[in-house]
Amino acid sequence: xxxxIIIIYYxxxxxxxxxxxxxxxxxxxxxxxxxxLRPGFSNHQRLAGRFDDEFPALLPGSALFVRGGLPWAxxxxxxxxxxxxxxxxxxxxxxxxxxxxxxxxKVLADLDRFEGFSPRSRPEVCLYQxxxxxxxxxxxxxxxxxEAWVYLAGSATAEELTADELISDGVWRSGRxx
Length: 178
Known about the structure:
By secondary structure, this protein is of the alpha+beta class. The chain has 3 helices and 7 strands; from the N terminus they run αββββαββαβ. The protein has a 5-stranded mixed β-barrel. The radius of gyration is 15 Å and the shape is globular. The two termini are about 25 Å apart.
């Protein structure tokens, strides 16, 4: 049932258009990955050879959930989820990747398709929403901040996630490549 719902949302997002592009969707920001796109996980090959730098990173004020075998990061800074409060906001752990400049538009479009996101669709019909967020990353033993694209759970999914689906430490462990 979950897989069918995911397919329906993906198809709605990729085919519906509201005619206006949200934000400047092709700013060349790095990308924060936290699930199956992370190094060592099943979908990382989609990015292999397509980025210049990779650093351990944290997405502050967020939470990580699992539903249907997929990771879903949710922005919790405003406490808008039914089962959450701002005090429960934590960090999602992942990596920040700087996409190779000459490949940027192609890689971002490929990631949008993979994540079921269309910048021309209403957020409630997309599986994930690509949004710019400040992430903290570690480089040479020091922590810094940068703005990065993050694929957060689409609004319909985010509203349905429950405390039972929360990954309390914010670290995705499922779906490692064999």
